[in-house]
Amino acid sequence: MTPNLHITSQQIRIFEAVARNLSYTKAAEELGLSQPAVSIQMKRLEENNDVKFIEVIGKKLYLTRPGERMLKSCQRILDELHDLNGHIKSAQQKIEGELKIAVVTPAKYFMPYILKAFLNRYPDVRPAITVINRRRILDELKQNQYDLSIMGRVPEELKLDSFPFFQNELVVAAPAKHRLSKEKRIPISEIATERFLMREKGSGIRMSVEDRFAENGIIIEPYMELGSTESIKQAVMAGLGISVLPKQAIRIEAKHGHLDILDVEGFPVIRDWYVAKMKDKNLHPAAQAFVDFLNSIDIERLLAMSDTR
Amino acid sequence: MTPNLHITSQQIRIFEAVARNLSYTKAAEELGLSQPAVSIQMKRLEENNDVKFIEVIGKKLYLTRPGERMLKSCQRILDELHDLNGHIKSAQQKIEGELKIAVVTPAKYFMPYILKAFLNRYPDVRPAITVINRRRILDELKQNQYDLSIMGRVPEELKLDSFPFFQNELVVAAPAKHRLSKEKRIPISEIATERFLMREKGSGIRMSVEDRFAENGIIIEPYMELGSTESIKQAVMAGLGISVLPKQAIRIEAKHGHLDILDVEGFPVIRDWYVAKMKDKNLHPAAQAFVDFLNSIDIERLLAMSDTR
DNA sequence: AAAATTCATAAACAAATGTATATGCATCCT
DNA sequence: AGGATGCATATACATTTGTTTATGAATTTT
Questions:
Q1: Residue of B nearest to A279 (CA)
Q2: Which nt sits closest to B279, CA to C1'?
């Protein structure tokens, strides 16, 4: 291995300016240095490497052959640094590129709608969503596999920074004065016998609800399928059956007694959603923008609008 | 104009090693530095440019996106420096490339033979010979147009380094006891009537002699053309005619009275040859080799062998 | 021939860069 | 749980880099 050239980046800059101007004085002016500073650096450069790069003949400067070669290299290097600078500076500002997010299984029901809205605002971001279980999220976060993760609980052991961005509470809504309205801790199996109004298959909220019943070994047969949260709400109030709805969506109606919230075992399904990152992890602009986005938007409204909870 | 990236070449080396090893400790070992030295430089690099290049998560290092970009650039720069180093180191040793020599008009008669011998030894040199007059040589030397110049007198005014490498003295040789042997200061016109033995057309020495006569308005008609200095010498001794020969070549014969040297006006033609360069001029290896070559060879013998004076 | 320009050099000093040693702290491994 | 490992930080110091000012030497311009 040959010992490399002994040169500082300042010497590169100075040499380039000197070689281009063929003048120490002009180079010094251009770089905002004193003339002796330039002279000294050039002298050191030559002494350190035991090469003559510059000849002063009469009053004019000439490059030796190694000097010509050196100029080429210096210019290439300065170009490279300039490019690099541009890339970095712009990459620090532009919201673009890959955004790797690990998502805990139940979040997959609503994440697409959030992402859709996010991409609408920042079309140059390429999100990569991985749906994995909680344990693996923690492991892989530790290994810096993701920029962010979305989960329902934040483990305390780990060095995570986390921010809540969404509280979702799914309650069982029944027509006013339903036979179970006054009951406490209604067994989940009791509910299963009711007429169930549900969103169409594939709806996020329907899947969430089905999952919850499935955990208790119950499979719900929908009595009727309706296309939106709003229409289900109306149908419940009309006495067509019961349903599971976001508490937020029926808050006013429940208050006025237009429908009742049943106290069923396993309900409400409370979902507090957090976005988390490793404490030492540096968020690139796209990731930071996503966090900001989560904090700034009204997720209830977004999901209601997309009608997908 | 964007302010350029603030980075030292040491930081480039350190960053590259860190990014490649993904370890400060290993990078430090590789570079023969202490671990804190590496840590500090990386920290300064990031602080100075307000960018995070490296993330330490748990115990492992990861490159951020700017870090990845940085690594690319660092590797390109190090490659460039490595190439540069190679070029310079080899260019410092190899005797090759262009060798620009300015030659005063009369030297053109013998230079080709010297060059031929030089190229025989150093085939990778590409000599560029320019034949110009003395005044222009001085001007253009000052402007660093040539590596070397060949001339007969060295002006004292100028800052030239010069070395004599060849003394040539052309004398008029006549058969022993020639009718003009005792004469002093024989007019050049007197000689013109003699039978002249000469080398074939194109011979360096013939051109040199013809030039000298031409300066006096005399055109010599050769009585006989012979192929070598040696055969002319024999012919002169045999009484066939007179000729102009290097004094060196007939020194012994003249001493023993086998032929006479005539004291003709304008003779001997004395040529002291110097190789010169500007005092501050740096000779590259090929140029230095040429100077050494001139000093080391026996030019009399070389020219005699090529039979061209 | 005098004046202006340009590079070289020196001295004295200020700032930055780079270093080793020692130590702390967190993580990883066993 | 305990030891080993790896990075961060503090301190103190050495070296390098850059500064101004002054001056010298040489060349070019006027």
A1: B57
A2: D26
